[in-house]
Amino acid sequence: MSQPDTVARILDAAEALFAERGFAETSLRTITSTAGVNLAAVNYHFGSKKELIQAVFARFLTPFCQELERSLVKLVDRKGTELSPEDLLECLFSTICDGSEEGSYAAQRFMRLLGLAYAQSQGHIRRFIIARYGEHYQRFTGLLKKAAPEIDPVTFYWRLYFMLGATIFTLSSFDSISGILKEDFGQDSTVLGTTQMMVPALAGMFTVK
């Protein structure tokens, strides 16, 4: 088995198990058994369980942040710097899901992991994300703050987390929510279509003082 294949199998197993069971509840031995590798392979490629968790997050966040940066550049080139909250959130959600079924599934899985990171007090993940991706976060939130100049910093902080919470819940629970929609209204839904519906609702938090 090649090294890239080994790394991918470990990451695939870790991501699935963390999302299903949680971080603390998933042992390295369970991951290695699922991936079909030995413990030495995890230690060699990642060093520790914390670094493996961070690598799982990086596998989603690195290409996401790169694509978001490109999308923001195109958005600013097209509309200038006087952007609305809705412009920015449309850009964000289209990047999260990338318009594909595979991208939508990856977004659901990642939001499940992100929700667990907050719920299980995985502080090292927050520090890792800030250190590795803080520049991208600051760029997006800076543009959003400029689009909502009347909102004071503390209120802006809380509304960012309201937005994050709504996004995590909706995407990580999408299968259940869409199942209820189908049962109650006979209507099918997609992750991409749902995020498009979220945009005006979330943008409203940044247009009302």
Low-confidence stretches: none
Q: Kindly state the mean pLDDT as a whole number?
A: 93
Q: Which class do the helix and strand fractions yield?
A: mainly alpha
* Biggest sheet layout: none
Distance between the termini: 57 Å
Domain HTH tetR-type: 4-64
DNA-binding region: 27-46
Organism: Simiduia agarivorans (strain DSM 21679 / JCM 13881 / BCRC 17597 / SA1)
Protein name: TetR family transcriptional regulator
What features would you describe in this structure?
This protein is mainly α and 209 residues long. The chain has two domains: 1-47, Homeodomain-like (Arc Repressor Mutant, subunit A, Orthogonal Bundle); 50-205, Tetracycline Repressor, domain 2, CATH 1.10.357.10. It is built from ten helices and no strands. It has helices at 3-21, 28-35, 39-45, 49-79, 85-97, 101-119, 123-147, 153-172, 174-185, 191-203. The protein starts with a helix and ends in a 6-residue tail after the last helix. The relative contact order is 0.11. This is TetR family transcriptional regulator. InterPro entries: DNA-bd_HTH_TetR-type_CS, Homeodomain-like_sf, HTH-type_TetR-like_transc_reg, HTH_TetR, PsrA_TetR_C, Tet_transcr_reg_TetR-rel_C_sf. Residues 27-46 bind DNA.
